[in-house]
Amino acid sequence: MIASLAIIFTLSTLILAVILSLFQLGLIYIGIFVIAFNLLQWLISPYIIDALYRVKEIPKSENPKLHEMIDNLSRKSGIKKPKLMLAHIPIPNAFAYGSPIAGNRVAVTSGLLKTLNDDEVEAVIGHELGHLKHRDVQVMMLVSLLPALFYYIGYSIMMSSMYGRQREEGSGTALLGMGLVAFSMFLTYVCVSFLSRVREYYADRHSATIVEDGARKLSVSLAKIVNTTKNMRKARKEVQNLNAFKALFIADPDRAEAESIALSTMAASSDQKLVQEILSQKLTALDRISEMFSTHPNIVKRLRALQELS
To answer: Average pLDDT, stretch 140-156?
Structure first.
């Protein structure tokens, strides 16, 4: 989710900067507008997410066990207990989000509670608390300002070329400026995706640290999430209509089909066997290339990293 928000803020910020530049405002004014716009998006984003994913707060009386679980893990994480939310989505998943005015929140989907047992849900929540502990929302928000920065530089170069003394030199400089703007789009997406994958590994490690036998439990949770999601094509299609926020999740629903190819020949008799079967898969060159543009690590690499923590 966090990476998704960053990418959305990145694109909307860049579009705003382009529009403002058409009005020939000074770079300082554009910068002020862009920063204010990003700040506003961050502040209201939890309310947008709640509306899109039909998220409601879970009363303590409705699920005291889940509240006790998040109380305990928040204490171990050294953070204030976030609001516990339920997203009415059949796909098993979870996500953390928040802002200064909305507070921190951790949401689990109805599908997650039906698919995983209590121990596995605990490991997933530990992962989401890791995002809050590491302030990943703030980190990714800073990254989302990169394209605007590149745009300012490119725009400055283009403007200076228009008033350059030598026409040929000015033309070449203008091309350089336009190239810098285009490159910023590609670079930002790759950088945001890479940073998102790194933060996922950190959150996995956090869960393994605060949850008893957390590495094993989270491994099983991820394997079951991928395995269950691959068989929910209709539900995945509905979530793809909200594709902009898919990186919120602990696992990417869109990658479930590709990652489940490794599971297609399995007839696992136990959850742990399912994990071992995934770990036995070999990564292809295509897997490594596609991961470069994904906000989540490849499931095989992710489970191997958790095995090292066990």
So the answer is: 65
Strand order in the sheet with 94-99: 55-57, 83-87, 103-109, 94-99
Among the listed residues 291, 139, 287, the one whose alpha carbon sits nearest the alpha carbon of residue 203: 139
As a whole number, mean pLDDT of residues 157-178 equals: 56
Angle at 200 between CA 1 and CA 254, to 5 degrees: 50
pLDDT average, residue stretch 82-109: 94
Cα 272 to Cα 263: distance, rounded to the nearest angstrom: 13
- State which amino acid sits at residue 277: E
Least confident range of 65-79, 80-94, 221-235: 221-235
Active site residues: 128
CA–CA separation, 12 vs 38, rounded Å? 9
Neighbouring residues of 234: CB distance < 8 A, sequence distance ≥ 6? none
Mean pLDDT for the stretch of residues 239-246? 52
Q: Of 104, 106, 74, which is closest to residue 87 (Cα–Cα)?
A: 106
> What is the 8-class DSSP label of residue 296?
S
Pick from 278, 289, 309, 58: nearest CA to 203: 309
Q: What is the largest CA-CA distance in the chain?
A: 75
> Which pLDDT does position 265 carry in this prediction?
43
